Amino acid sequence: ASGIGRPRGRWRRRWIVAAPALAGAIVATVLVARGWRPQPPPLAEDPANVSALRVLASARPEQALAAARRAVELRPEDARAWLNLSLRLPEDDAAGREDALRRAVQADPESSMALNNLAWVYYDAGRFSDSVRVQRQAGDVTKRIGRGKTVAMYVILNNQARSEWTLGWLLAAERTFRESLELSRGVSPSGE
To answer: Which single residue of 13, 20, 62, 97 has CA 20 to 30 Å from 172?
Structure first.
């Protein structure tokens, strides 16, 4: 009796493993019969597709830097490509990160993310006055584009206050910290 149950169990296990693959093959056959054609990967059509590069970076980090450099070569006017490159460069390449972020700001002066990241590069390099100047610029941009009551603005103000504090500008730092705290009471992620 024990020998009879085993083949049935193996068959059941094999069917459970094979069923999803078989179902996938059937669905693909039906889709192709109805005229569906697989699309080429986004990077095959557009090697500078920034959204596809972000996905690539998370899936294959070893290829992310090369892809980001390629995107910048193909689209030097795209601020997102420069911003992506700055995020992929090694931490110890501060000069490269600064250059990429400056080019991102040059390509899109309204990019508060590029401005904020550039301010942090200055902060890490000990260039606190430059950091405060760029943080203020990022805050102005964020307010101007209508995102003055968002998490982004809170972060920008907080970073600006840290730079002012480090410079010894205690009154300015206190004023900026108060503004960020006041904002945090009514802050919404979407800015509504």
So the answer is: 97
pLDDT confidence tier of residue 105, bands split at 50, 70 and 90? very high
**DSSP, res 186:** S
Residue holding tokens 């990019």? 111
Number of H helices, E strands in the chain: 10, 0
| Cα dihedral 123, 125, 126, 127 in deg (nearest 10) | -70
Strands (E), 3-67: none
Q: In this predicted model, what pLDDT tens digit does every residue of 47-74 receive, in sequence order?
A: 667 677 767 766 677 778 888 888 888 8
Please give, one letter per residue, the 3-state secondary structure of 83-150: HHHHHHCCCCCHHHHHHHHHHHHHHCCCCHHHHHHHHHHHHHCCCHHHHHHHHHHHHHHHHHCCCCCC
- Report the distance separating Cα 106 and Cα 114, nearest Å: 10
Evaluate whether 20 touches 14 at the Cβ level (below 8 Å).
no
Count of CB atoms within 10 A of residue 160's CB? 27
Among 90, 134, 130, residue whose Cα is nearest residue 115:
134
Q: What is the mean pLDDT of the chain?
A: 78
The confidence score (pLDDT) of residue 109 equals 92
For the chain, the first-to-last Cα distance in angstroms comes to 70
Predicted confidence (pLDDT) at residue 191 exceeds the cutoff of 50:
no
